[in-house]
Request: fold
Amino acid sequence: MIKYFAGLLLGMLLGMVAASTLLYFNPLASRISLSPLSVSNNEILSVGYSAVPTDSIVYTNNGESRIKPHPENIRELWEAPIRRSEVLVTIVTDSRNNPAGIGIKFSSDSEKSRLINGEALVDSAWHIHLVERGSLFVEQTENYWNYLRKIVVPAYWSTANHWKGLWNGNMTVGPGALGTAAVSGGTGEFAGLESEAVEAVSASAYSVSQGPVSMEGRLNIDLTGNVELTATDIIDR
Amino acid sequence: MLKTIIFGFLLGIVGTVAAAYYVPVVDQYRESSVISVAPNGGNMESFRINVPTDRIMIGAPMQAEPLPPGLRWPTEEMFDGVRVELFKVRNTRDTVIGVASRMVADSDQIADSVEWVVHLPARGTFYVTMPAQPADGDRRVGSMRAGTREFRPMQGAVSERWVPNTDNDDPDAPDGHIELVTSLVGTFSDDVTETALTEGAL
Reply:
């Protein structure tokens, strides 16, 4: 009887390992999507920022993450309703990397995350003010699955607890039907704007103890309006 | 014996896949909302920010004592007219339920404004713009420009007011609080209604 029970447990363990491996290496979940804005003829506003917390003006989270708040004495988001959230305040730059304004990014883990679909989702919102131009609000859902698989997990597997390489990826997967973020203009030249955006990340170094060491983000915002692309447009380009 | 192992193997696969599908990876903590119905339709909700206890950051040029200590505001002249504050946001039961940014822009090129983004992780985020000048001396009234999730189908007005503390007996009492009051009404379209129906919200 004990022999059969041990066999059942062994089989279950093997099955769990096999299923977990299949989920982790699921090729259907690791697709790199093409940004519809990259093949659009519309006028695009490109806004960059450093995604390294120590480069920011302030960064805060619950204080228990490996990525430490910056500066050191900033208040942490430890209360239960906000402990799965983080806030980044940073200088945003234009396409030539000159300072252009201030960006505030609020991010919270999304309850829509489903590992079986390769979805590690984060609901985020940008509040961006471009000096002498105006303000924008960008709402998006981001998928960190590929980022975790290609950067964070390899850093943990590395004997040096470090990842180095080059990884580029679009983080935005919604709420737009084409995987775009929703943009609402607030003031200045952006007042009344309803448009779309895509946030992309370029990473080259990650440390287990510090988080991102060299990583830049870029928001490409369509200033013209809705992006209307057909499958034929994308293939043609 | 082999059949038992194979059965266990299949059970392990099915169990793992079922757990990955049904067990939520994230479960945001929710405080029940304190919303009242307005007499003329829509709903009203009040948020408060105790000052200075809920203030996370003040970003402004040339501060003698920056908050948080060690904050380095950009020194470029172009940022002189921008002031950014970060706060924790409370409901009327004085429980922290979110975070918010307040941005004031003073510019020659565009109209001066006050902007709020209130981020409530379990509910959504909304973006408000207000004129720089208060409407009736102490209250600024602006409009909600955009909202996400719960606030997506809503529109309406949002007011901001500074309420000083009058209780001089309590030495631990805050200096006062910022009161944000939303007065929102739903703008349900057929599309939104269908979405809500499929998600079981209605």
Residues 190 and 196 of chain B are 10 Å apart (CA to CA). Helices of chain B lie at 2-22, 190-198.
